[in-house]
Amino acid sequence: MGVTNIGISIINTYARLCPQHTFYILTNGELHPEVRSKLQMRDNIILVNSPLPVFGSIGFLWSIVKFHRLLKKIKPDVLIAPNFFVVTWFLPKKMKLVLYIHDMVYKQYRDTMQLITRLQMQLFFDASLRRAAILWFNSAYTEQQFIYHYPDIAQGTLLFTGAGINPGFLQRIAQPAIRTNPFYGKTGRRKDYLLFVGTVEPRKNLAFLLRLFKTLDPDKYQLVIAGDPGWGDMRKHIDEILAEKDYPLDAVHFIGYVTDDELIALYRDALLFISTSLNEGLGLPQLEAMACGCPVIAPHNSAMIEVVQGAGVTVKGWEIADWKKAIGSITADRQHYINQGYLRLKSYQWDDIITRLDNYLDGARRYSYQLITCS
Predict the structure, then answer these.
(1) Residue 368 belongs to what H/E stretch?
(2) Do 191 and 211 belong together in one domain?
(3) What is the CATH number of the domain that holds 155?
(4) Residues near 127 by Cβ (< 8 Å), separated by ≥ 6?
(5) pLDDT tens digit string along 188-238?
(6) Per-position DSSP letters for 123-153, written without gaps between them
(7) Are residues 265 and 294 in the same domain?
(8) What is the pTM assigned to this prediction?
(9) Which terminus of the chain, N or C, has fewer Cβ atoms within 10 Å?
């Protein structure tokens, strides 16, 4: 998940660049093996696995009962929360909260969210924003949307922007390529495939992607969709489209969750990466595709403009002909877009982001001290 990858990126990079700091990772259970494998444990990283004796799997209950006890015991100077909000009721007063904001879907596309997530955001998001010393945005677009929806909070809070690809993911890409492609036609002849990566949920607009694919030549192209099943009634719409007469069902592959190594192989072998999302706070799969040498097509909206435009092809509107033209542009000059994608990645380096953040936090500490002495 994007939230998990962001958290891992922050920990790995920050702990490496700033050995003078100690980093506590607080969890309510054993980490998933793949998450654990991505963490680059160092002497200044302390993993605290402290579940509740009962109902240990209920993260929300843990965040109310146990999380605050751990904070009181550890007494950290800074809490970095990588997932939109925290329960602020018992947070230590002197502790600075850095809250990571992934998008403004809660304000722009609330109906596409899971009910439980919508309720949690409604209960705790605003309070978390007002408690934060620094609000950290993953893109300029997300920051702009936040300022629009929360002008009063934006005016009185330090704002910071920056995101990138997990450094561990980049290290895996640097390993020798294993070229495997399980997607072949019935005759065994390899066919080019378009790749989508993301949770199958309403905001991803997969119904449009499937209708677009129906207009392409099924003897020439395949469509590979990687990602968790998601929520909402999107699956119902997908099944209805796939059941249409003459739909090239054999050329569409829903492969579910994949590991990083499998994902890298998919990116490397794809003709192109395609997104038809209605809104993205960043567009991490787009950046991952570029890093793997996979050209990108995305809608001309939200943060995908700043991530993709000029490095890939962005499409304004939802005319099928425009999207087919974009696919033609990529295939006609594929190496050009691969090269442009590599150049775009220079703007999304975690080392640069964490260095700026630490300076920002240092500035926040000095600012706080000046306020105290002036009072």
Answers:
(1) helix 350-374
(2) yes
(3) 3.40.50.2000
(4) 85, 88
(5) 446 799 999 998 888 899 999 999 999 999 889 999 999 888 766 777 888
(6) HHHHHHHHH-SEEEESSHHHHHHHHHH-HHH
(7) yes
(8) 0.88
(9) C
Half-sphere exposure of 113 (CA within 13 A, CB side): 16
Nearest to 284 by CA among 271, 272, 270, 298: 298
Say which residues have a Cβ less than 8 Å from residue 85's Cβ, sequence separation at least 6: 99, 120, 121, 124, 125, 127, 128
196 and 114 assigned to the same domain: no
Q: Are residues 160 and 191 in the same domain?
A: no
Are 268 and 322 in the same domain?
A: yes
Nearest to 275 by CA among 164, 173, 163, 199: 199
Domain housing 267? 170-347
Tell me, what amino acid is at 22? Answer: T
Number of domains in the chain: 2
| Token reading at 141 | 């677009």
Angle at the Cα of 180 from the Cα atoms of 176 and 184, rounded to 5 degrees: 160
Q: What is the pLDDT of residues 42-79, one digit of tens each?
A: 999 999 999 988 876 677 788 888 898 999 999 999 99
| CA atoms within 13 A of residue 293's CA, in its CB half-sphere | 7
Residue 321 and residue 342 in one domain: yes
Q: 148 and 106 in one domain? A: yes
Largest CA distance in the chain: 79
Residues 32 and 105 in one domain: yes
Return the structure tokens found at 308. 């993709």
